[in-house]
Description:
alpha+beta, 5 strands, 32% strand, rod-shaped
Amino acid sequence: MKKYQIGEIAKGIVTGIENYGIFLSFEGDYTGLIHISELSEHFVKDVKEYAKIGEEIPCIILECEDEQKKLKCSIKNTDFGKRKDQNIDHGFAPLRRQLPIWMEEKLKDMKENNEN
């Protein structure tokens, strides 16, 4: 019988973080990887925003290689992943917040220059 089944949710401990994904340790000497493409539906600028070393992460098992004890995992469609996404700026959100400030500053500069 397999230790882990495809589609099940398992908890892993973060053992490493690289630009391309998060490495996990699971029970039974299994290791796993959450590739950057499996962190979010959005563009991921910084993998470190999704996990910290030593943190326990619930993730979905996408693939399981029992002989090598390796798992391919995802948090993209989990509650954990969605909660992380809520705290991260994606897409144009930072620009949307900053643009009115820049415009106000520029209009102020233009007004000052016209008065001189």
